[in-house]
Structures are given as C-alpha cells and as structure tokens.
Design goal:
This protein has five helices and three strands; from the N terminus they run αααβααββ. It has a three-stranded antiparallel sheet with strand order 1-3-2. It starts with 6 loop residues before the first helix and ends in a 5-residue tail after the last strand. The mean pLDDT is 89.
Amino acid sequence: MTSQRSISDLAALIQNKTHILSDGTKEQPGSDFSLAFAIPPAAVKLDTSLEAVRTEIIEAADELRARLMGPFLYMGSLALPVPALMVIFDCLYRFEIASHVPTMPGEAVTYENLAIRCGMPLDDLRRVMQTAIAYRIFEEVVPDVSVKHNGVMR
C-alpha cells in the first residue's frame, strides 16, 4: 500500500500521536515505555483508543523508516539481521551468558568477570555482548566496562 503522506506528515503524525499516548498514560507504571529491567516488569495498560494510537505510531514509524531508507536498504534491513541474531542467540544460549548477568534491577557485571564466568575469551564475549546491545537485548552500563539485563532479556 502506497502512502500519500509526505515524510514530514508522517513525522508530525508520530509526534502528535506520541504526545497523546504520553498524556494518556501519565503516572502509570511503564508509561516511559522503557526497556529497562524492573521487578515486577512495568507494563503500561492501554484502553482501546490508546492501543489504536500506539498502533498508528508504530505503523507510521515503520513507514517513515522504510521510505527514508528506500526499497533496497529497507529490504536489506529486514533480511540481514536474521543470521546475526541467530549467531548471537546461539552464543548467549551455548555459553549461558544471560544466567551470569546479575538479575536484580540496576546490578551489572564487568565484561572481564562475565568472560570468566562464561568460560569465553574476553574479546569474543565483548563482541557478542556489544552486538546483543545493538539489538537492545542487553544494556551497557559503563561503555566498554560493564553490562546489565534490560526488560527484553529478562
């Protein structure tokens, strides 16, 4: 389906609807829509109208991204991450990396300690973790020093 909206219109729609969503969820747990790890997990409650607003934002953001990238780059962005994610998840599983990262919100582990716990060479572990961080699977607390869980992995 081809959109008749300009990219400026899409950006304005995203901004406008985001304000509506933000105003409609104020003071609720999870209203910042963060991926931060919390106990219990923060899940914002949306009524039917706010769920429709969120859906509209997601669809407009995806359309804006696709149109800014163009057909070739957009299709590549859909296909290329899949093999990388498979390798990353295989490493995370095979070396039980997630189980060696502290599970309390805010707690972190250094790359060095994590490499020792997982039995992985430090450079390899750092590459795996930084790729996982790029896909928002973990968070880096101190750049090139320590990592922690976020809401995606935990």
